[in-house]
Design goal:
The complex is a heterodimer of chains A (76) and B (375). Chain A is α+β, with helices and mostly antiparallel strands and 76 residues long. Chain A is 30% helix and 34% strand. Chain A is globular and about 30 Å long. Chain B starts with a strand and ends with a helix. The chains are: A alpha+beta (76), B alpha/beta (375).
């Protein structure tokens, strides 16, 4: 059963939002969606870049009250 | 008040000692007790493995008897937990005993999970256990030149280890006089050479200066006898592959359904397990998106010990864990620097100096005072 999991990486510098997402993606099932929260503006660029390179799916990305919400779907 | 500490690594040891001092009156009066359960009667200084891997320390320097590090008022048992029953406030151990508690602190740590990457164990050097670190050093001794690739799994213990082992390998090959026969190639999972941007901005020009090549967005997927393949679809041939494998928490955490991957969902400031007011987690065992490092466990242990003691004494915790982490960074050529940060303040590492390297070298010995809670 696919589900959406929240990954709260706000106000963390190391390992940082992308590394946190990579680790969480390993534990997710194909079809699962992960919503990562980040206060690092760079996440809006480097997470989509990695998702695109690996071949997962970007669902949506938006900024709300200083927090980036990036939703990705594990496809493989 | 029965306090049970599960795990005798850095976090558990500092917490238990700190708490034993804060509650010395209550313990003497029979109103509180502290019991520690561990998988070993030895305590290892894990950062020392990095030095063992390049022949700068020997394994015997890394161990002390655990009981010698603990306050005498702490009851210590080598009897690893096989099942956590948080709803019943007890654990069951390998010996078959049941330990009931009023407060539990779980600090069981994490372990390299090389078997999660096909071919890694068979083909790659690694340094997260004593035997692997010694084996890696012997492999280095027999290496006469060629392409050395450093590859990194996620998550991993000690965020500085990938950089440090790379700089230390460069030093090792220079000292052996074979640097001109070595191509050292560093790979890293995200889009820069380190997760901390200021550290990446310092390390990348250092790589350029030393002639170390690098590739980012490279996540190990599989290792063959002569190639490492990435999730991103690229591959690197190698003559020697040095790896930081992806880590997992302990199996007992997964077996007890406390958290996927062996990492327990933890409140980032109070360090309690989500949904429990009397169960806490520190160190690598948390699922917090912060560095898996000894210093993280150390600072969490100090904050939590203060809060457990104050809750017993005045009925309420007195402080939040602020996300503090402090990491030395061995930079090679006899120099080192450090990164210190918390949830609110990013790191601002300074240029490496010989002085910080010598302080780190001294800390390798002073660690035991730190574990005892004296430093």
């Amino acid at each position: 059963m696919s589900e959406r999991k929240l990954v709260d990486a706000k106000n963390t510098f190391c390992p940082g939002p992308l590394m946190e997402l990579i680790g969480q993606m390993k534990m997710a099932e194909i079809g699962d969606e992960l919503e990562i929260l980040s206060t690092d503006q760079g996440s809006a660029n480097d997470i989509p870049e990695w998702i695109n390179k690996v071949g997962h799916e970007m669902v949506e990305s938006f900024e709300k009250e200083g927090v980036w919400h990036i939703v990705v779907k594990k496809t493989k | 008040m029965r306090i049970l500490v599960v795990g005798g690594g850095m976090g558990g040891t500092i917490l238990a000692n700190n708490l034993a001092r804060r509650l010395s009156g209550e313990i003497k009066a029979g109103k509180a007790s502290i019991t520690m359960l561990s998988a070993s009667d030895k305590h290892m200084y894990q950062p020392g493995l990095l030095y063992v891997a390049v022949g700068k320390m020997t394994p015997d320097e890394l161990y002390r008897d655990q009981v010698s590090l603990l306050e005498s008022s702490i009851t210590f048992r080598v009897d690893p937990v096989t099942k956590f029953n948080l709803k019943e406030n007890n654990v069951v151990t390998e010996s078959g005993k049941q330990y009931d508690y009023d407060v539990i602190v779980i600090s069981t740590g994490s372990r390299a999970h090389a078997e999660g990457t096909p071919g890694l164990n068979e083909n790659a050097a690694q340094f997260y256990t004593e035997s692997d670190a010694v084996k890696m050093f012997k492999t280095l001794q027999n290496f006469e030149g060629g392409k050395v690739v450093v590859a990194v799994g996620v998550p991993h213990k000690c965020p500085m280890a990938p950089l440090e082992i790379t700089f230390m390998l460069a030093d090792y090959f220079k000292e052996r006089g074979i640097w001109d026969k070595v191509q050292l190639h560093y790979t890293y999972p995200i889009g820069r050479v380190h997760s901390l941007e200021p550290v990446a901005k310092w390390a990348q020009p250092e790589f350029d200066r030393l002639g170390i090549t690098y590739e980012t967005l490279f996540n190990m997927k599989e290792v063959t006898p002569n190639k490492v393949l990435s999730e991103e679809g690229t591959e690197e041939e190698y003559d020697l592959l040095v790896t930081v494998p992806a880590h997992k928490g302990m199996q007992v955490i997964e077996d007890s359904d406390l958290g996927p991957g062996g990492f327990i969902p933890t409140n980032r400031t109070r360090l309690n397990i989500e949904g429990y007011e009397n169960a806490f987690v520190i160190g690598d065992t948390t699922n917090l998106p912060i560095s898996k490092a000894g210093s993280t466990a150390h600072f969490e242990a100090e904050a939590l010990a203060e809060n457990i003691a104050s809750t017993i004494k005045i009925g309420t915790p007195v402080r939040d864990y602020d996300g503090k982490v402090f990491c030395f960074i061995e930079a090679g050529e006899g120099k080192a620097t450090y990164a210190m940060f918390n949830y609110q303040n990013p790191p601002d590492p300074k240029a490496p100096t010989k002085g910080i390297h010598w302080f780190k070298t001294a800390y390798n010995k002073m660690y035991w005072a730190s574990a005892r809670g004296l430093l």
